[in-house]
Recover the amino acids of this structure.
């Protein structure tokens, strides 16, 4: 796989600059992904061979932004009367106990 064919991976990010630019009295609020772009350092870093292929978990390394590409195949229970899938809500989350305890979970809307 060439670097141009990589559909997911990681970017290094200047987290100190990002925090300085976006932090408020309660830390950095949840912001749109587009706010990250000016702080990315370099191009997309392809995943190592042991991380390629289909996964249900990915590493999210400190000082990096992890880009994930996912294909959702809706179960038949979410089809409308015409047999078309409807918008569904899913959650992705961290498996570090301290993060789970502090509601570090993100909602994802999957639209047909």
């Amino acid at each position: 796989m060439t670097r141009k064919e990589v559909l997911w991976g990681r970017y290094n990010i200047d987290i100190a600059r990002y925090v300085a630019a976006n932090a408020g009295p309660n830390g950095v609020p949840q912001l749109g992904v587009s706010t990250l772009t000016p702080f990315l350092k370099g191009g997309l870093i392809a995943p190592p061979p042991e991380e390629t292929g289909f996964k249900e978990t990915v590493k999210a390394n400190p000082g990096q932004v992890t880009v994930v590409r996912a294909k959702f195949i809706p179960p038949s229970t979410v089809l409308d009367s015409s047999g078309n899938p409807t918008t569904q809500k899913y959650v992705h989350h961290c498996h570090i106990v301290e993060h789970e305890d502090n509601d570090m979970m993100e909602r994802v809307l999957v639209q047909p």
In short: The beta strands are 9-13, 40-45, 64-67, 88-93, 105-110.
